[in-house]
């Protein structure tokens, strides 16, 4: 290992920063975060440093560097970008036995600064030892994406209970198990979701009564939790960070037809996966059966992820499942997903609203119990709006007929997006009067979203995939 990783406590310590430009300002931000007392030395400084100096947050000395400036400092940072000056700073710090860093000059530095992921008090430093700083930054981006924003909050919460847990559990192994269960369990999830009050009340209850070591975690804690999670329209990259995190810690994943195998693969390896969608050889489970399944797993103390295509609250029956579980005293959290309308529109380059063209967008279902969707047609043709029609492939003919009968121009542009955001996505555009012919000509069977409105014209032709086939009215 070329560099020894360590974290310095700079709180209240004197740090010399030589330089007043952008590089110096970046270092200053970090040093101030760490609570250092920074003296900036520069004949001229940029607006950020000047502003901080004016407010008294840092001391700015407007002159060039002399060797004596390093005296009494904890560390020295050079960021002038001028070889001669940076070298003199490094030399003076070296002679005084002080740690010194020079921006972009590992050869002059006695320490280097890692790329950091900051979830204070949790901080992750990544260094390639100067070999490949861009690679270290890439790695940081990946870690950033994996770690929930509220991780610092979780660490602080745990800190406030450390003493109490220690008093309750004298055995080190028991304490470790307690914290392991805590960090993997529903209380931690509550804190990450911002509900610290409930988490605090429950933690106090755990500590004050009974055995916290059994109760903090998931399966040992009685009723489990159900997360009703939106998986987005299909592209796994459109999952939310939260969906990914929950999938990776779920005991059971109960999923629908629209959720592809790449997304299910994100689940923990030993998680139970239960398919409840429709398949030809396999009769669909009724909503009652799905509700009962969710309830039984939650009551067995499992962490359940109920994974649905798109967003659970948009034509997803997430509302019914939430109500059922709440009525049975099961804790439920809903995690939104990108709904088909926004996912498909983005994938096809169609803005759903546009100044002057569409002031509103209506999500509607073309699903029909007895051949005809039960919709307020007169309302749908009012306003300059975009219609995003879910489940409308089999009723497309009647939808276009009714909209035209109620006054919508037969030439209104339409787009049909099948398997939106997936590699086999198909986009076809035409006019409202020709909607059914458009579906047939392109062999569209679904899942597909139909977009009706002037905004379809705005899709840049370059943004539409090859399969586009425009049919005249
Ligand atoms: C039962 S609804 C579920 C909607 C989902 N909850 C959402 O928010 O997108 C199923 C319908 O959503 C639309 N849909 C879902 N995913 C789609 C995709 N990738 N491409 C096109 N349409 C999609 C289709 O209209 C499909 O028939």
Instruction: List each distinct ligand once.
Output: S-adenosylmethionine
Structural class: alpha/beta
Task: Count up the helices.
Answer: 17
User: What gross morphology would you assign?
Assistant: globular
Mean pLDDT, rounded to whole units? 90
- Give the beta-strand count: 17
Strand arrangement within the widest β-sheet reads 3-2-1-4-5
Task: Tell me the helix content.
Answer: 25-40%
Backbone CA Rg: 30 Å
Question: How does the major sheet shape up?
Answer: 5 strands, parallel
Instruction: State the distance separating the first and last CA atoms.
Output: 70 Å
Unreliable spans? 217-221, 462-473
Beta-strand percent range: 15-25%
Summary, kept brief:
This protein has 473 residues and is α/β, with parallel strands linked by helices.
What features would you describe in this structure?
The protein is of the alpha/beta class and 473 residues long. Helices cover 36% and strands 18% of the residues. The protein contains 17 helices and 17 strands. The protein has helices at residues 22-33, 47-54, 83-95, 133-146, 151-168, 172-184, 186-192, 196-208, 212-215, 241-249, 261-264, 287-299, 318-327, 340-348, 377-380, 396-405, 435-441, and strands spanning 14-18, 37-41, 59-61, 75-78, 100-102, 115-119, 122-126, 225-230, 252-255, 272-275, 303-308, 331-335, 360-365, 385-390, 413-418, 426-431, 448-452. A five-stranded parallel beta sheet has the order 3-2-1-4-5, sandwiched between helices. Strands 10-9-11-8-12 form a five-stranded parallel beta sheet, with helices on both faces. Helix 7 (186-192) runs antiparallel to helix 8. The protein starts with 13 loop residues before the first strand and ends in a 21-residue tail after the last strand. Mean pLDDT is 90; it is low at 217-221 and 462-473. It binds S-adenosylmethionine.
């Amino acid at each position: 290992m070329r560099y020894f990783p360590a974290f310095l406590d700079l709180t209240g310590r004197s740090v010399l920063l030589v330089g007043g430009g952008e590089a110096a300002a970046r270092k200053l931000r970090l040093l101030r975060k760490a609570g250092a007392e920074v003296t900036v030395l520069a004949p001229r400084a940029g607006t950020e440093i000047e502003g901080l100096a004016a407010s008294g947050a840092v001391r700015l000395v407007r002159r060039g560097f002399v060797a004596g400036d390093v005296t009494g400092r904890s560390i020295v940072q050079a960021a002038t970008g001028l070889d001669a000056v940076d070298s003199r700073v490094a030399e003076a710090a070296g002679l005084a036995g002080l740690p010194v860093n020079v921006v972009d000059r590992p050869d002059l530095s006695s320490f280097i600064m890692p790329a950091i992921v900051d979830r204070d008090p949790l901080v992750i430093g990544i260094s390639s030892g100067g070999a490949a700083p861009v690679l270290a930054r890439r790695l940081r981006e990946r870690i950033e994406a994996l770690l929930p924003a509220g991780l610092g909050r979780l660490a602080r919460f745990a800190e406030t209970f450390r003493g109490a847990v220690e008093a309750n559990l004298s055995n080190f192994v028991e304490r470790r198990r307690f914290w392991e269960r805590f960090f993997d369990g529903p209380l931690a999830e509550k804190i990450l979701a911002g509900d610290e009050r409930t988490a605090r009340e429950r933690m106090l209850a755990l500590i004050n009564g009974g055995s916290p070591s059994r109760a903090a975690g998931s399966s040992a804690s009685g009723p489990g939790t159900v997360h009703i999670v939106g998986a987005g329209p299909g592209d796994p990259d459109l999952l939310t960070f939260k969906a990914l995190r929950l999938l990776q810690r779920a005991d059971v994943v109960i999923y629908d037809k629209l959720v592809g195998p790449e997304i299910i693969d994100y689940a923990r390896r030993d998680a139970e996966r239960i398919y409840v969608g429709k398949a030809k050889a396999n009769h669909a489970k009724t909503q009652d059966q799905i509700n009962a399944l969710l309830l039984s797993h939650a009551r067995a103390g499992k962490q359940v992820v109920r994974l649905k295509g798109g967003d659970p609250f948009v034509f997803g029956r997430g509302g019914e499942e939430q109500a059922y579980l709440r009525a049975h005293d099961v804790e439920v959290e809903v995690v939104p997903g990108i709904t088909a309308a926004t996912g498909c529109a983005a994938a096809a380059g169609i803005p759903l609203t546009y100044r002057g063209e569409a002031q509103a967008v209506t999500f509607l279902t073309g699903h029909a119990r007895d051949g005809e969707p039960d919709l307020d047609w007169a309302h749908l043709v009012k306003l300059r709006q975009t219609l995003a029609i879910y489940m409308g492939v089999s009723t497309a003919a009647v939808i276009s007929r009714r909209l035209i009968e109620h006054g919508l121009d037969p030439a209104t542009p339409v787009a049909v997006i099948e398997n939106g955001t997936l590699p086999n996505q198909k986009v076809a555009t035409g006019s409202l009067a020709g909607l059914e012919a458009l579906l047939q000509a392109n062999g569209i069977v679904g899942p597909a979203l139909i977009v009706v409105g002037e905004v379809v014209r705005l899709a840049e032709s370059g943004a539409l995939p090859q399969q586009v086939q425009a049919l005249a009215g």
